[in-house]
Amino acid sequence: MTSTSATTSPAFDPVQACAELEQRDALGRLRWGLEQFGDGFALTTSFGIQSAVSLHLISQLDRPVPVIWVDTGYLPPETYHYARTLTELLQLQVHVAQAPISPARMEALYGRLWETGRVEDMETYHRIRKVEPLDRALQELGVTCWASGVRGHQTDHRSTMQPLAQVRGRWALRPLLTWTNKDVFYYMQEHGLPQHPLFEQGYSTVGDWHSSAPDDGGISGRATRFGGLKQECGIHLPGMAGEGI
Fold first, then answer.
1. For the chain, what is the radius of gyration of the CA atoms?
2. Are 37 and 172 in contact (CB under 8 A)?
3. What residues contact 61, with CB distance under 8 A and at least 6 apart?
4. Looking at the DSSP assignment, which residues form a beta bridge with residue 191?
């Protein structure tokens, strides 16, 4: 399993930091992250339906911040095109994180893990293709704090989040934690940001092609992901059990 180095004691009080961050807007939270962590600060993205907001915000900072994109190798073609569009539009410094084992090799050795209907197989898939590649990239880039676009209403776990917390030995900053879907829509409209191509096809969230679906009137949002087996892929969880492949 990929190891991560524990962060050193912060030069701030985490409780006071959360209280301060609660009073800041999204851009202010990102500025705080850059001020506190400097070269150890980064943003993660999926280039999903609502990723343009955090990417546009990070592009407004005084200096470039690395953007880590976890590419599972199973993203829809539309996501790869969208990633290129936003990278060029916002002049992003993107670092692609991928598993050392290719999709073809993984399927040959372990099968199509997302098709079994077993939660443990889906968790193994997420660890191989998402969690470990991200942790490896954070380690290689010397990241001590990473920001993301998670929002509180998306899952049960995210509804309990604080604007700043430790996740697998590093600080995690959540600038958009209190944003609603309307906030995202109007921000994108105000700044002329392009929508993900699958938005027009009814997707309110998208990840891998095999584990995403458009809203159907009965289920929507994260409930359309991972065949309904789970809400989280593990990236935003404290840790995942098991050994890497």
1. 17
2. no
3. 30, 31, 34
4. none
Read off the pTM. 0.83
Of 1.10.3430.10, 3.40.50.2300, 3.30.70.360, 3.40.50.620, the CATH number of 14-227 is 3.40.50.620
Task: Specify whether 233 is catalytic.
Answer: yes
The span from the CA of 231 to the CA of 4, in Å, is 24
pLDDT over 90, % of the chain:
64
Residues in the chain: 245
**Domain ranges for the chain:** 14-227
Residue with structure tokens 């990236």? 235
Contacts of 231 (CB under 8 A, 6+ apart): 154, 155, 156, 157, 222, 223, 225
Catalytic residue among 92, 131, 172, 233: 233
Q: Is the pLDDT of residue 7 over 50?
A: no
Partners of 165 in the β-ladder: 172
> How do beta strands 170-173 and 94-97 pair?
unpaired
Inter-axis angle of helices 181-190 and 51-58, to 10 degrees?
A: 50
Q: What is the pLDDT of residues 118-154, one digit of tens each?
A: 889 988 999 999 999 999 999 999 999 999 988 876 6
